[in-house]
Amino acid sequence: MRRRRLSAASDESSEVNLTPMLDVVFIMLIFFIVTTSFIKESGVEIERPESSAASARPDVQVLVAITPEGAVWVDGEPVDIHRIGTTVAGMVSDDGSVVIQADREAATGVLIEVMDRLRDADVDKVAVAAQRSAG
User: Fold this and answer.
1) How far apart are CA 85 and CA 28, in angstroms?
2) Which of 62, 67, 91, 90 is CA-nearest to residue 78?
3) Cα 83 to the center of its chain, rounded Å
4) Within a 13 Å sphere around the CA of 43, how many CA atoms are in the beta-carbon half?
């Protein structure tokens, strides 16, 4: 009779409770989702010019890309150069900034025109992206 009681007690305690393990897995999942940095991309492949004075801009809100052919892209969508000012002005907040990624082979005139149209649309914080040179 004593053996029956021991075997019954051991059957009950042999189950593994998975609830704490699932809680830990979900907490880790939430942690990794929250801490992941999301990288904004311009939507086209741009070869940026090099500069020794290039610095990171963490407050970038809108990316404008200029291709070697002179096409203008805003956050992955092609935009007519005549509408660039109003498009970007509607996307950027007061404390956000705009970064223009002009390709190394892009015409300087297109870059200047984009900057002028952004300035006309009251977008003040505009920077031109460059790649930090090795030396």
Assistant:
1) 42
2) 67
3) 24
4) 15
Q: Which amino acid is at 116?
A: D
- List, in sequence order, every beta strand (DSSP E) within 1-135: 50-51, 60-66, 72-74, 77-79, 97-102, 126-128, 131-132
Residue 76 region by backbone torsions, left for phi larger than 0, else alpha for psi between -120 and 50, else beta: left
Residue 126 in this model has a pLDDT that exceeds 60: yes
Fold of 50-132: Nucleotidyltransferase; domain 5 (3.30.420)
What are the tens digits of pLDDT across the range 68-122? 888 888 877 888 888 888 888 888 877 778 888 888 888 888 888 988 888 888 8
